[in-house]
Amino acid sequence: MSVSPHEIRRATTEDVPLLHTLILKLAVYERLSHKVSGTEADLRDALFGSRPVCDALLAFVASEPVGYAMYFETYSTFRGRRGIFLEDIFVDPEHRGKGIGAALLKEVAKAAFARGGWLQWLVLDWNEPALAFYKRLGAEKVEDWLSYRLDGEALTRLART
Asked: For 7, which of 46, 63, 66, 155 is 20 to 30 Å away at the CA?
């Protein structure tokens, strides 16, 4: 497998429109475009506002943006340590298999390692290429835990009671 020369760097405020475009590409790939409601302004606030809540990395090949990763810090009461939750990782399909996804994940792993913690994420059960990629990297499927969410009307109802 040949590896294209690529650059991984942290996103800046000027990168917000580009990052938002890449997020929309991920949503198309995951068949979830109908779920996207976040705006560039939301993204700018989350990354660079008065109280940033996440970080983003961008991947480039020959100055062309080809992917990104977004992550945030989390905490385990059992471990007593900080970890990283990888919210998104995406590489344009035509640039996959060139080491770019692994390079992005390696940079996020460095952030998790520096915190003395771990790195965790979710993956759609139908996304066989991603599942195979994570397995090749040595990631393990988390057993015995199910993901739950309160949103919309259910969240409103609980919050108002």
From this structure: 46
Active site residue 148: no
pLDDT band at 88 (very low <50, low <70, confident <90, very high): very high
pTM given for the model: 0.91
- Catalytic-labelled residue, pool 68, 71, 134, 148: 134
Amino acid at 10: R
Enter the tokens of residue 46.
């989350």
Buried b (16+ CB within 10 A) or exposed e, 72-99: eebeeeeeeebbbbbbbbbbbeebeebb
DSSP-derived secondary structure letter, 98? S
Residue 1 above 60 pLDDT? no
Q: What residues form DSSP beta bridges with 8?
A: 59
CA distance 109 to 118: 8
